[in-house]
Amino acid sequence: MSDPNYKEPNIDPKLLKPFNAQETEARIYKMWEESGYFNPDNLPARHQKPYSIIMPPPNATGVLHMGHALGNTIQDITIRYHRMAGYKTLWLPGTDHAAMATQNKVEKDISKAEGKSRYDLGREELLKRIDTFVEGSRHTIVEQTKVFGASCDWSREAFTLDETRNFAVRTLFKKMYDDGLIFQKNRIVNWDPKGQTTISDDEIVYEEREAKFYTFKYSNDFPISISTTRPETKVGDVAVAVHPEDERYQKYIGQTFKVDNFCGVPLEIKIIADTEVTKDFGTGALGVTPAHSMIDWQMAEKNDLPIIQVIDEKAKMMVGGENLKGKKVTEAREVIVAWLKEQGLLEKEETVKQNVSTAERTGGIIEPLPKLQWWVAVNKPFTLQHSNIEGLKAGSQVTLKDIMRHTVESGQIGIIPDYFNKTYFHWIEKLNDWCISRQIWYGHRVPVWYRDNEVFCDIEAPKGEGWKQDEDSLDTWFSSALWTFSTMGWPKCFNDKTGEIDPKSDLATFHPTQFLDTAPEILFFWVARMIMMTGYTIGQIPFKNIYLHGIVRDSQGRKFSKSLGNGVNPIDVAAKFGTDAGRMALIIGNTPGTDFKYSEDKVRAQSKFANKVWNATRFVLTVTEGFDADSQPELTEDDKKTLEETAETIKDITKDIEEFRYYMASDKIYNYFWHTFADVIIERTKPAINGTDEKAKLSAQFTLLSILKDMIKVLHPFMPFVTEEIWSLLPIKDKKMLMIEDWPVR
Description:
- By secondary structure, this protein is α/β, with parallel strands linked by helices.
- The chain has three domains: 22-50 and 58-86 and 144-160 and 550-746, Isoleucyl-tRNA Synthetase, Domain 1; 163-181 and 377-548, HUPs (Rossmann fold); 204-367, Isoleucyl-tRNA Synthetase, domain 2, CATH 3.90.740.
- 39% of the residues lie in helices and 18% in strands.
- It is built from 21 helices and 27 strands.
- The strands form ten sheets. It has a four-stranded antiparallel beta sheet with strand order 6-5-14-18. A four-stranded mixed beta sheet has the order 10-11-9-12. A three-stranded antiparallel beta sheet has the order 8-7-13.
- Strand 5 (182-192) and strand 6 form a beta hairpin.
- Helix 15 (570-577) packs across helix 16 (579-587), helix 18 (637-658) packs parallel to helix 20 and helix 19 runs antiparallel to helix 20.
- The longest helix is centred in the last third of the chain and has 29 residues, at 662-690.
């Protein structure tokens, strides 16, 4: 039987029902947006010290998955904490045109639907199709980002291919061209025959495959045997390299041998010495093919060797008779091996494991080829025009590599976790000049024009007739490297002669940014190049801290991919469990730099936690009904101690957040709220709440409300929706939105 004396508590009816994320989250996000507080210009007066984050722009090639949601959650936790802590916070969002990836995606769709190639459509029509696709994709990405609670300033949203960024790219290209740091040269590149473009070293994916390792001589009277997995390239050999200390071959060094017929192709082979050759690998002798190997190209430059291209852009043979010319390289390999066997020149054939270079975007096997391309010189000294970087003075001679190395080495930029420092410096040491031109149509077009023998590089096209613009587009990472400062008003707010910045600009207020969250896999693609370009262009670091989160994988440990069909849409997670549960599930137990397995069970557990917080709030408001929340009753010693312990816990959590230990902070919040506050403190106060000692009751009520208010604040950056809703229901006078309330206990 029900208690006849039971009285329904006079609390908000919302709390009498279970928390419904689906009915709450869209309403709350709209309220946040309409408040204007995502924009730092609209924050209350106490928000003075700037704190900024630039969102790593997701590729405009499709929808986001939970891996993207992890990055956005980490950034949102950081920005929400600092906003509550009184900072003037800017989180600037945007998307990346992802030139090659986007063009490949649209080309594949057109080919599948219409059976047409880009050449059938033409440049103008293809770009129209891509723009339409990108517009829809960007809209989807923005909606997904909003659903997951991102409190970024949408009024400042940027796109790497919008007109503002395009002007910035042209301006920087011109500056680097004039400084001799961008140049055009015929060099070996990584050529993707499938995508018909160059790609950078960082865009190569190495796949281990079985290969045949052939040992042979060029002719019966040739004195040295060589070994290779690519006999088809040997028709382009101009030398054999041996180690200078290899006694077997010393007498041949400097001699030149003519081979009248190597599978129908005449060769002239010079024996050279090079310390790069390993004496005990194969025969200790290396056939040098300068046109089809970066190492061989470098040997050719050192030894003044001719460069003979024998494979074209479609991975077909350019030399030989009917037996070779026009054949694909794989077919030519079989022809040459058969010829070697017929001539008795093949000495050994072995099966080996080999790392095959493939293009990240198309999967095509990379063919090293000599091509006329645009390059950024990373080792060339130049005069640093502007510098606010400690240890690098304006007017000093530096290289772009120096900027990348010094800013991290000096501690001005910190990498989390710090063991990635070693990886970062190792990459810099091996870094060669950066090939920035791509043979695609979508993207920032190279701002160089030609007429007869004239070459013109400028921000705008030259006047007069007969000028033709360079056909190539720039590597998407070139425009992305400008991201932190091009989104804040550069170059219009920056005086390149004096280095002065318009004091009213975002660049003056919010740059350098404080924090960058991204994945380790683009540490070199993007992060290092932002450091390089920002230091060169405006003499600053782009960010003070780099947080490298791990890859979110499925429950079987596989990467999310379209081919596997295992991607998880953040919108689906929010619809099923609520955004807060999805966010918390991604953070708890997720250490930086370590891959993380996503599972619905983790999200379900955090959905239960959101309900626990909701139910605990209902209980506290029920037992404190009528209590003056602004009063300061005399506290019992036990309650004083409880509040002191809570304050220490919050200080500990705060320190974890400020030192980027989100996985520890979230775990402490979860355990304290559930296992200390709900299971222990609430239970411990029930006798006082239900007893006749008015002093003890008031003390207990004050304690419960105080802890609840502080814990809801502390939980807000992690679970913003349920906490904002609860905050709106708490009995607090002159209440503000939780997102701009003061952070407790610092």
